[in-house]
Design goal:
alpha/beta, Alkaline Phosphatase, subunit A, 4-stranded antiparallel β-sheet
């Protein structure tokens, strides 16, 4: 047989084998993900996989028989493993894997045992197409007689070329054809091709392989793919009556900056932020003015900790202070670092990146530390572990923390070995020795990030085993008991903190705020459900975590509005009566009169007491008749704009620029609040269009 005949025989065989493997794996993935199998998206995925299979087969079929076979198997293995990894990531970490978050790859490998053991056994069916592929390639290929293509090789070359071009144009058509679009989808398919900024929607519409290709493309060509939002000129102004609760802000410098700014990206950001609503003061404004503040971000905590028998110290804070019954800590790429960052600056982290690390050199004059610095506080931040996962010594100081203490500086015993974390009890003791250095007139604000309750829970560890006897009479499995043992260390540390503040006569003058970075995703949801007694799989209930504000003077209160860590800084800024501009935060004061109860997830999904919108499949679950479809669209459009502008602000280090121009154009004379200038109370309606803009990334 001549070479042309062999080539086209190998091409046809490789093409069919790869197409079967890839498409079957995608269908199985959709079934496991509860995505619709019989849908326009499935047709689009099939067309796309045909293109991929043709291109790969054309390339590898030019090689000799043995190498061609090895490459076909290797490609099938890689694609199958990638698909399995994606279903595993979304199940275990709550996000899809992205090359944009590759800085955390080393951290993820630490969890590999728990990652694999936490996945349901039936997930492994994804590898069935791979097994079929290997069998066909190794066993049956030898029995297949090559056909004579030599005399018609030119015909087949033309046929394959026409097929590839036709499939490519048909695929392109599916991106814009009206009947193939979901009218609730927050980011259009054509936008996702240019920039797969929302992995969950991209995978739903293009499949795992399609997303993988787009993810790599956006990593290599970020500027070419970056499509952002252009804010057009204001359409109208509206004046409001100034009352005692009106938060007055002089916008003359900002308006001058907009008038003189030539950079379209910065001006789009200027117009977006200046046009956001200014939250008025309320009955809570200044309630904690001049008190000290301790914010504690608790590692891997959910409502399991609300238990008086096992965790009396936390329970005391929870029941004697304010607690928010519908607080969530949605996960994203690098959940601990990104959620910590969002808590400090109230901006959405970028969905497919380890934002805290990638943009660690950014500075934010509006961050929580700087707000307290401006009010004369001594600010610090502390974490009882190393910089191995997040570069907090840079991140926190760039947000205004006057001093960051890592585990080495705190001189707390710790281990570099994964799973052997430092003690939160030692952590709180060290914190108390640090505030002992302050004089009686010092007001302090401190951010503490704990670590003892971090996974692993599936194997023995110092604090996972320490209090196992306390849970011996429970019916929970050993993994759950190890987690609960670690929570005991955290609870003990809260007792040390409370006792230490009381002994120093600081408790009455100190506000303690507790929230979680995320729920314990290292613990299987089935195990969590056995403790909590309700289903946490539905409607993202697994992401529900405690949020507590405590001071001895507070009347115990439960708040039912839906909140997240995004609301932390603006809520505290109002409670402490700090000088801040509410428009600079994508979160809101959760105690404001006009607070809109809602939590937003990393992919643009959202939830409140009226509905749950799932961005991945654009489905809405209504809890009552409060919303109409037009309301859902309006909310989706608003959230899409917010998340895109948040990403653009972070990528361009916008708040450094804003701080400079506000100082540059600051008026020499203060504004007379009685003047009818409209500069203070102006609210502007904006038009939004999509336009490609330059970024500084």
């Amino acid at each position: 047989m001549n070479k042309k005949a062999t080539y086209f025989s190998k091409f046809l065989f490789n093409y069919l084998i790869l197409l079967i493997n890839l498409f079957l794996a995608e269908l199985i993935f959709r079934v496991l993900s509860n995505f619709a199998v019989f849908s326009w998206a499935s047709l689009r995925i099939f067309l796309g996989l045909n293109v991929v299979a043709i291109i790969i087969s054309l390339l590898i079929s030019a090689l000799n028989e043995k190498i061609s076979k090895i490459l076909a198997i290797l490609i099938a293995v890689i694609f199958s493993m990638y698909t399995f990894a994606q279903i595993g990531f979304i199940t275990y970490l709550g996000v899809y894997m992205s090359f944009g978050a590759s800085s955390q790859l080393g951290a993820v490998t630490d969890y590999i045992i728990e990652f694999l053991t936490s996945l349901p056994l039936y997930y492994w069916v994804i590898f069935i197409p791979l097994i079929i592929t290997v069998v066909l390639l190794i066993i049956f290929r030898k029995k297949i007689k090559y056909f004579e293509f030599a005399k018609k090789s030119a015909f087949y070359l033309i046929f394959v070329s026409v097929a590839l071009i036709t499939l490519s144009f048909t695929y392109r058509y599916t991106l814009t054809a009206n009947f193939m679009q979901n009218n609730l989808q927050q980011v259009s398919n054509i936008e996702l091709v240019k920039n797969p900024s929302v992995p969950s929607i991209t995978i739903m519409e293009f499949g795992t392989i399609g997303y993988g290709v787009l993810d790599i493309k956006s990593l290599i060509l970020p500027k070419a793919e970056e499509e952002e939002i252009k804010i057009e000129e204001p359409l109208k102004e509206k004046s409001e009556e100034i009352t005692d609760n009106t938060r007055l802000i002089d916008d003359r410098a900002w308006k001058d900056a907009i008038t003189n700014e030539k950079n379209s990206t910065y001006n789009n950001l200027n117009k977006y932020f200046i046009n956001r609503d200014i939250t008025d003061k309320n009955d809570y404004t200044g309630l904690f003015e001049n008190k000290n503040l301790i914010v504690i971000m608790m590692e891997s905590v959910n409502d399991i900790m609300i238990n008086e028998e096992f965790y009396p110290n936390f329970y005391k804070l929870y029941t004697n202070g304010w607690h928010f019954a519908n607080h969530y800590s949605p996960r994203n790429s690098c959940a601990t670092g990104n959620n910590e960052m969002s808590g400090m600056i109230s901006l959405y982290s970028i969905n497919d990146s380890c934002t805290a690390n990638k943009y660690k050199t950014n500075t934010y004059y509006e961050a929580i530390f700087n707000l307290f610095n401006n009010s004369g506080y001594e600010t610090t931040s502390m974490h009882n572990y190393t910089e191995g996962y997040y570069r907090r010594s840079t991140i926190h100081t760039n947000m205004g923390s006057k001093k960051y203490y890592g585990v080495q500086e705190l001189k707390i015993p710790f281990y570099y070995e994964y799973g052997k974390w430092a003690s939160d009890e030692d952590f709180m003791k060290k914190f108390l020795t640090i505030i002992d250095k302050y004089d009686d007139n010092t007001k302090f604000m401190t951010w503490l990030t704990t670590v003892s309750s971090h996974q692993p829970y599936s194997f023995s560890s110092p604090y996972g085993d320490l209090y196992l006897n306390e849970f011996k009479d429970t019916k929970y499995n050993i993994t759950t008991k190890r987690y609960m043992s670690k929570l005991k260390v955290l609870d003990n540390s809260l007792g040390i903190l409370m006792k230490g503040l009381e002994e120093r006569n600081l408790l009455d003058d100190t506000v303690i705020v507790l929230f979680a970075d995320h729920y314990p995703y290292g613990l299987a949801k089935a195990n969590i459900e056995k403790v909590l007694g309700y289903n946490v799989t539905n409607d993202s209930l697994a992401e529900k975590t405690p949020f507590v504000i405590y001071n001895p003077s507070l009347k115990p209160t439960e708040y039912t509005q839906y909140t997240t860590y995004m609301n932390l800084t603006p809520t505290l800024a109002n409670l402490f009566n700090l000088d801040y501009d509410p428009r600079l935060y994508l979160g809101h004061d959760a105690l404001a009169n006009d607070y809109e109860s809602r939590i937003v997830f990393a992919d643009g999904s959202w939830k409140n007491e009226h509905a749950y919108y799932n961005a991945a499949n654009s489905n809405v679950k209504y809890y009552d008749n409060y919303y109409k479809i037009e309301d859902i669209k309006k909310i989706n459009n608003g959230l899409t704009l917010d998340m895109k502008m948040s990403a653009l602000a972070i990528k361009n280090n916008y708040f450094v620029y804003l701080n400079k121009v506000l100082k540059k154009y600051k008026p020499a004379e203060p504004l007379d609040k009685n003047e009818e200038t409209g500069a203070i109370t102006e609210i502007v309606e904006t038009r939004v269009t999509t336009e490609k803009v330059e970024t500084n990334e």
